[in-house]
Amino acid sequence: MGGMDRPVRVLFVCLGNICRSP
To answer: InterPro entries this protein is in (predicted)?
Structure first.
């Protein structure tokens, strides 16, 4: 999608207790 959406998404996922990179 974008460059800023990559790190932001990973951070949110990590906070969710999954720590996965989509």
So the answer is: Ptyr_pPase_sf
